[in-house]
Write the structure tokens for this entry.
Amino acid sequence: MADLPNPAAALAFLARGCRPNTKLSYMSKCRAFLVSCGRHNRDPLPASRSTMVGYVLHELERVAMAPPSLVKYLSEVSSLHRIAGHVDPVKDPFVQLVIHGHRAHALETAGGELELQRMPLPAAFILRVCDLGLATLNVLLLLQCAGLVLAFILFNRPGAAACMGRCDVSFTAHGLELQVVDFKLALRTGRERLTFTVPIDVDPTKVDKVAALLRLVVHAHDAAVRDAAAMLFADPAKPPAQRRFWLSARVTNTWLQRLLTLLPTPAPLGGRY
């Protein structure tokens, strides 16, 4: 940036390209690599093959990092080299071999057990959630059921479902029309909103539980004369001003945990919901 008219402004502009949490994550991972290089008197940039093999061995001896975490740390080393204009040392065949060795060692140490695989929620469970929501007299449970169902029909966009305002939901002749805020890493991006039309409740000859549940929440919101910009699935016990705050994207995890407790659904062997 030194040859630009305003280097400080250019650096500040580039710095805003990453969100604060992303920068903190990058720096912590890069710092771990730099500490390892300093401890063993190695040049971190550009890192040689032996430096990278030594770093993986260093993490193996610390027994503080699982194979998936090691991959994330190495990806930041790759990013560091690409930004500096160097060849990515992680792609070296010998480095890839030692990464596989680290994974094999971790698997053997754990007794050959693999981490449970995350499985998609079955539609049958979602229909049970609809039944529970339509039958319950607990207002908060009703909202949680409806919010989880909406996240499911939005192709598992939990942040978008949790942060759905009343003004973002509309029933039309073509189905349920939704205006969705764009999220990345559980944060709003400020980009243009996305519009979805979900084809539910369009056949009058069929009972649509999903539509019935969501209509119940919308009608309750309107009957209480709440603000159109208020979060549709916020706790009604909260003050009106607080109901306009964006909910955390991870709140759907809390909803799911509660509903899996109320509606036990065994996951397939080797999997988890």
About this structure: The domain at 123-264 is CATH 3.90.15 (Topoisomerase I; Chain A, domain 3). The chain has a mean pLDDT of 82. The beta strands are 117-118, 169-172, 175-180, 183-184, 187-188, 194-198, 271-272.
